[in-house]
Amino acid sequence: MTILTGPWIAAPTGSAARSALVPDLALTRTPHDGVRVHRGALDPGARVLTVAHRTGRNEPTPVVDVLAFGVAELRLRHQPLWAPAGLLHAQAMTTRVIDLSHDLRPGMHTHPGLPGPDWQAYKTRQDYEAATGTTFQIDRICMVGNTGTYLDSPYHRFADGADLASLDLEQVVDVPIVVVDARAQRAVDLDTLAGALGEQDIAGTAVLLHTGGDARWGQESYALDAPYVSAAAADWLAQQRPALIGIDAVNIDDLSDPCRPVHTTLLGSGILILEHLTGLQAVPARGARLHAAPLAWHGVGTWPVRAYALVAP
Questions:
Q1: Are strands 206-210 and 173-181 parallel, antiparallel or unpaired?
Q2: Residues pairing with 289 in the sheet
Q3: Confidence (pLDDT) at 147
C-alpha cells in the first residue's frame, strides 16, 4: 500500500545545506509495518533524514529497501491528512559487517618457522612528484602466502589440485555461515561437531570453528597447544560437503602431527580451509554470510584474504 507519493525534499536533520530534491519518491507500508522507498537516492551519510512533501503524484517504481541506505531514522515533516500517524517515526536497520581478519604489519609472524611480511616503496611519492608533479606510491610486497588470515586451496596440499585462480567463487563469496562453539576443549572432535550440528544440513556452507585461539594472536604462545580439528572430525566433515571450513587458530591440524590429516582430507575433498580467523564471537550461529575471496593467482595455493561476515537485519 503506497501511503505517500510525489517529489520530496530529503535532508539530514540540522543540515539544511545538504538538502537535495529526491524526485518521484514514494513511501510504502510493508506487511511488517516497515517503510520502503521507491526511486530516488537517500543520502547514505545521513543517519536521520527529514522528508518534506512537495507537490505532484507519481506511480511507484520497483521497490528499493530503505535499509540499503543506512538510515537509522526516517522522519516525515508536513504530514498529509491521508498519511497514518504511526509513520511519523519509522525505524530502519542496516546490515552489519563483521571483520574476521587480522591486520598485517611488517615483520609480524603468523606461522612458526615462516618469515613475516615486508614491503617497501618501489616508487615513492617523492619520485613521482619529481617526475610529474603529482604524488603516488607503488609498493613492493614480499611475503609468504601463509600470512595473516589466509585461504588454503587444494593446490596447497596436492600438486594436481585446484590453485587460487581455479577456485569457484561460490565457495568464498556470500556463503551461508554456520558457527560452531568449540571453546570447551582443545581438539574439535566428532562429538563436538555432532553435538553442535546434529542433523543440520551443512552442504555448501562455511563452517567456522570458534575455538578462542585468536585470543593469543601475536604472542609466542599462539602456536603452543593450539586448538585443532581431529582426523575423525575431518572425515565426518568431508562427508557433509561444506564449501569451506574455517578456524580461529594457528592451524586446522595439530602442529605436532606432520602428516596433516585434516588438510589432506578436506583439501582432497575440494573443501577449502580458512585459518587464523578472528572475531567469531560476534557472528551468529546461523544467518550470516561469509566473503573471503583471494587473488586469482595461477600456481599459488595459499594467500591472505580479507574475510568478513555480513549479518542481515
A1: parallel
A2: 176, 310
A3: 97
